[in-house]
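Q: Hi! First time asking for a complex rather than a single chain. Here are the components, and I think there are two in total. Is that enough to go on?
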Amino acid sequence: MKSCLIVDDSRVVRKVAARIAADLGFDCHEAEDGDQAFSFCQATMPDAIILDWNMPVMSGLEFLEKLRAMENGQHPKVIFCTTENDVAHVQRALHAGANEYVMKPFDSEILHHKFAQIGLL
Amino acid sequence: MKISDFELYRELLLRNSGLSLTAEKSYLLDSRLTPVARKWGYPTLEAMTLALRGLPDTNLLNDVIEAMTMNDTAFFRDMPVFTALQDTLIPHLIKDRGRRRHLRIWSAGCSTGQEAYSIAITLKEIETRLKGWKIEIIGTDISGQAIRKARNASYTQFEVQRGLPVSWLIKYFQERDDIWHLNDGLRDLVTFEQVNLIEPFDELGLFDIIFCRNVLHYFEDKTRQRILDRIGEQLAENGFLVLGAEENLNTLQTDFQPLAGCPGLYGHNTGRYRLDTPKQAASS
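A: Yes, that's all I need. Here is the structure of the assembled complex.
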């Protein structure tokens, strides 16, 4: 079973995203910030990561840059999931190695489409 | 949703429309059917499901079927179709129609325009190969409201996140107050007309590619047959018909032959089609 790491400082968002990913057949794990996510990935590299942008301690972007620099860091498919919906943010995310980008608020259909699009399903 | 309830709806859909509901779509049932339950005064979806096990009102049944077959319209629905459009169908037509340099594409049952604009984006992505070509994309739908919205080319943040890769979203759309507007350059590639498929549509002219995806299942066999015959008359010689990936013409007598190279692809029985799919081209 594929694994999905959900990184968001909001517990509500983590729970919602985890339920959707679980429905899509993923074994889900959570992290509150980029730093926790990084520690998690050092131990086990997930197959998918749903990533918030603005978080304390370490932002999503910073985490992503560190992730892609890791050995096997290219493996996880990363979907940013954030309230930031301007072109500049999207471009920065894609440039840093994100596979897709979801603008909050999102629903299960959107995540389903994005997961399918990047080959996670 | 309980498995037994899902099975009920799956049976209902299959029996009434010939469409099969796969388990992965079950997550859609709750959101689609709850409004129907509300409309008919059921306190819960479960209560409505129970009623459907008995002798339900035909109108309730119709509402349920409609809700389940509701056009799951999204951008790039079944991405392989658009990849095939870009890599196989258009290159073939560029060679075949080389002298005319004119392509006409019809999106029949276009709803609010996402399919037609997806075709436009696909073509825009290979515009250097289509330099000097006149491209016409026509979208038609029975609903005037859908056509008006399609012409507007403005979509909510929910709508543009269904099926549209984010890199194309920021490339071809502009956001204003959480509404995403398609760039004029693309909007101008498509014209929309209100058309009812059971009425004459020969004035639309001939097309090189006709998309008629997940529209025909709304009709019963005899009507579907007649519509397909008439669609065949609007399809240019050696033109392509694209149906939904899960649709087929098995129960009908039509003048179409299935073709490889794209999901749901058909051509005239009398046509000569030699398609180079990317795999073939690579090995030759």
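A: The longest strand of chain B covers residues 235-243. Let me know if you'd like any chain examined more closely.
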